Structure formats: structure tokens, C-alpha cells
Amino acid sequence: MTETVLESGKLPAALLRRLLAPFKKDTPELLLPPSVGEDAGVIGIGGGALVTATDPITMTGNEVGGHAVLINANDVAVLGVRPRWFLAVFLLPVGTTVSEVEGIFENMRQTLEALDIVLVGGHTEVTDAVNQPVVTGQMLGFQTNGHFVKTGGVRPGDKILQIGPAPVEGAAVVALELGTQLSLPDSLLAEARDAILNPGIAVIEPALRSAALGASAMHDPTEGGLSAGLHELAEASSVALEVRASATLWYGPGIALCEAVGADPWGMLASGTLLAAFPSDRVDEAANVLVRDGNDVALLAIAEAGEGVRFDDGRSLPRYERDELSRILAGA
User: Fold this and answer.
1) Rounded to whole angstroms, what are the CA distances from 148 to 79, 116, 144?
2) Beta pairing partners, 118
3) Are 136 and 65 in contact (CB under 8 A)?
4) How far from 220 is each of 61, 75, 163, 227, CA to CA, in Å?
5) Per-residue pLDDT averaged across 218-241, rounded?
């Protein structure tokens, strides 16, 4: 019997669902167990909700430290809870210099300070098990009233807002990793390299604002892009989504870079955009407030009874189990 070999990127959703199924989920303090599409777990403590999320970051340069903070902070914030405490595991390749480690730590420190998040622990190790820095972060937040918003909260009739353009993170990583190989204007590449900070990949404030405005569900699309994010939102909520393709907010340099490397922007790493569902009687007010806050906002999809994700012209939206960035980098 031939063994299935996994490709780089996230585990396929069907496999992950099967792997998670045997784990115990019926303990009373586990308010949100692990499942496909949920960004974090929630533990009930003394009437409050402890939200915890973890994610690894693999990229070159000092930015890996701050990047780990931002990605994990997003995963807590999309539950409507402010991220407060951070732990980090650093796996560094043999040959790493002291100055390189100092740069990564300083980048992490600056990002934590800007977000008013405290480093509370972690682990460091130089190992031949990796060939570039790997930073695995864990972020925690606490909601005293116990309220949180989950990915699986969408109901038929809800409307889904896209807050912030895509693919911001994918554009930044392509520009940083492959920019010198591409025949694109220096100004465009410079803009894309800076995209992690401008327009930025943090969705913390719009997520917290959306929760306060009555969001029924939120999700932070990352690997697999907007496509995977919408499919995960639909699957977690047991609804179908009709997507208005013409309304999609695209990041200009990201589209140019996707075209240059032959990637579909729908499947490109999408941190920097937020999907927030609202009941139909709240969505207009929420969109207006979010725009006044300075966010780019579009009505991207409408939830219906059923399953799957399709465009408003009837075409199915492909689900990218493997992020386009992983595919491109594997062939670089």
C-alpha cells in the first residue's frame, strides 16, 4: 500500500478533522474546543474566558520576531478579546550569530511594546533540525465577562464584511524572499516589503471593534488566503456563502506579485484582512463605524442555508488546501 505524502502547508481539512475527532472535548471548562476553522481555544476560568492561540512563523530576517507577535495577536483578537500575554519558542539554525538573534528579539520587543502585550516566557534553542529561524508564538487574552466570538457563529441571512485588503502578508513575503528574481519596479517591491507594517497585517483593533458592534462570527484568513478563510467560515458555521467577487478588496502590489509568480490571489497568504459576519440589521451600521475608524470595508458575502462557497455567478470558489505561497516557494 502506497503511503500518502503530505505537501508543504496546512494539513488538509479532512485529515485534520479526522485527527482531532478522538480528542476529549466534553470537559466543562473547555468552552471552545479545537476544530477546523477556529482561530483559538477558550478555557472557562472563574466566569471569565481565557483565550489562547498558537502559530509558528518561518521566514528570514529580523521581522520573524514581530511577525510571530502579530499573527498570534490576530488569532486572539478575532474572538473579540484583547491579546495580553505572549510566549515564544525560538528554533535557530546552526550558524546563527549573536547579532542576528539580537535583531530578532529587538523586533519582537518593539512589536510587543507597540501593542501593549507582555512577554511572559518561552524557550530558545540552536538546532540542526531547522535551516532558518522558526518562531512559534503563543498568545493569551482574558475576557472577564466570559463573552467571545467564534468562527462558527454565522447564521443564514448574516452578511460578511471584508475589512482590509488581501493578500498583504503574501505580498510581503514574496517581495522579501523572491523580489530580486522578479522584473518588477523597485518602488512596487519596496512597498510590498513594507506591507507587514503598511498597510499592515494586524487586525486587532477592527476585530475588537467588530465584536463590540455585535459581530456574530469572525475569522482571520491566513494560509490558503481568502478562499480558505471563506470555506473555513462556512464549514465551521454549517452554512453556505455566496461571494460577491466584484466587491473583493485587493492589495494592488499583492495582485502584481501574484501575476509575476503565477499565483492565484484568492489562495495567497492573507493576514491583514478580517472576515466579520453581522446580522443583516446590524451590518450597515457596523460597516459605517469601521469605515469612520479608517478601515477599508466591503460587503463580501451573504450566508445561506446549505454548504459550500460559491461566487454570485454560480461558480464554486476553489478551496486552497495548500497556500499558493507554499507552492511558489517550493518551486523557487
Assistant:
1) 5, 21, 10
2) 85
3) no
4) 24, 7, 10, 12
5) 96
Q: Is the pLDDT of residue 331 over 80?
A: no
Residue range 2-10: average pLDDT? Answer: 86
Res. 189 pLDDT band, cuts 50 70 90: very high
Q: CA nearest 271: which of 117, 134, 68? A: 68
Dist. CA 77–CA 9, nearest whole Å: 23
Q: Quick: pLDDT tens for 69-102.
A: 999 999 999 999 999 999 999 999 999 999 999 9
Which neighbouring-strand residues pair with 166? 250
Indicate the length of the chain as a whole number: 332
First-residue to last-residue Cα distance in the chain: 32
Asked if residue 173 lies in contact with residue 254, where contact means CB atoms within 8 angstroms, the answer is: no
d(CA 120, CA 303): 40
d(CA 63, CA 60): 7
Under a CB-based contact definition with an 8 Å cutoff, are residues 203 and 274 in contact?
A: yes
The three cell numbers of residue 1 are: 500500500
Among 110, 75, 108, smallest CA distance to 89 is for 108
Give the model confidence (pLDDT) of 124-137 as tens digits. Answer: 999 999 999 999 99
Nearest one of 123, 117, 33, 107 to 74, comparing CA atoms: 117
Looking at residue 10, its amino acid is: K
Phi, psi for 132 (deg, rounded to 5): -155, 160
Determine what percent of the chain is predicted with pLDDT higher than 70.
Answer: 99
Go through the domains of the chain in sequence order and give each one's CATH number: 27-143 (3.30.1330.10), 151-330 (3.90.650.10)
- Write down the pTM of the prediction: 0.95
Residue 36 has pLDDT above 70, yes or no: yes
